[in-house]
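Board notes, transcribed. Complex of a protein with flavin-adenine dinucleotide.
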Amino acid sequence: MTAPAAAAAGAATSDVLVVGAGVIGAATAFHLSTLGAGSVTVLDRATVASGMSSRSSALVRMHYTFSGEVDLAVRSDAMFDAWTELTGRPACVRRTGFVRIVLPSEVDLLRANVAMQRERGANAEIIDAAELARLAPGLRTDDIECAAWEPHGGYGDGPIVAGDMLAAARERGARYRPNTPVAALITDGDRVTGVLTAAGPVYAGTVVLAAGVWSRPLLASAGIDLPIETELHHVAFARHPAGAGIGVACIDSTTRTYFRPEAAGNLTLSGGEVGEGPRGADPDGTPLTPSDDLLAEIVESAARRLPVLAESGITRGITGVLDMTPDARPLLGEVPGHPGLIVAAGFSGTGFKISPAVGEALAELITSGAAAHVDLRPFRPSRFAEGAPIGPVLAYSDD
Ligand SMILES: Cc1cc2nc3c(=O)[nH]c(=O)nc-3n(C[C@H](O)[C@H](O)[C@H](O)COP(=O)(O)OP(=O)(O)OC[C@H]3O[C@@H](n4cnc5c(N)ncnc54)[C@H](O)[C@@H]3O)c2cc1C
């Protein structure tokens, strides 16, 4: 049944139905309601940001090796800047500054990437070791020739961003139905026409699938297979005297870690490639806390760049599951041959910082047929079937 026929028969309908109230679904609903997309409904099996958005380290940076991601990050950053104007809520990003350190053999790539990012509007520059030591006291800099620096970088908070976006969407008329698990997509031929919930079907002109690591089984219910695999990721929190940790956010390829301040400056959050689990983690069957050994390994690695961590007590950890694609970039847009469905999944550990721009681009795609501010075509879900994954020429070896 199509949405108009369902409405005539008295069934639940919506012009656009968003599955998932994480940062991506909430941002999409916000922009849909701002652009006047008609009736917008957001369904979540639990509550807003109850998925991986609540586990995110939430770093905000524009340093990417693929220009399309830079565009999404730059556009999102402008929206984070205008947060109060957009959503009516307090600013949601802490602008600590962001440092990117790469392997010594990849410094030329770093310079080229910063040049590319600046051309696309990123506030980024190359700084030498002395300047880095001045900007980020506490960081070991004796093995560094230079680093990329974003004075505007920092970090945010997944539940706040998702909560603000959803609340602002509801103020503009969007409906929110928490505790409503979707069991399957409903199809009429190849067209996706709605979703099946325990409370019955809900029909829609367009279904946006923003269910993160839970997206693949829902796609399978409509006979669609997209390459989204799950991967464990672990984060550690270490305590030290306030001000003794790092004041900035940092990603460091030499230690294969990232870190940033947390709370009132007496905690450092660190994570990274260390201890990443094998593919195929069950997002519902994964321990919520990493083992003590794993936490120690993460902090030990990060301490090679931030020595205070070697003397800091580990207070707790978080386990999260990433929705990885083969090229580690998201799947955004229509699935050819399946009208009525928009996919927004496979964020591969980078979805927080780009969520406002992704939501805007998808809302524009739905309301006007194309994204107006960024080019979504490189992210099309069909790119792997076409043999055209994203492969930036300036990629780092650990991209
Ligand atoms: C540990 C960790 C650290 C990270 N660090 C960063 C970082 O520093 N910077 C960055 O930019 N990104 C980071 N990320 C990635 C980023 O957090 C994610 O890409 C982003 O939060 C994904 O948002 P989402 O809305 O797609 O998914 P989610 O937040 O997982 O939301 C999906 C929603 O769908 C709902 N759902 C699932 N199945 C169903 C169903 N059947 N019916 C109804 N609802 C359903 C879930 O309840 C959930 O609320 C990190 C991720 C993790 C796990």
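The chain has a mean pLDDT of 95. The domain at 95-153+229-324 is CATH 3.30.9.10 (D-Amino Acid Oxidase; Chain A, domain 2).
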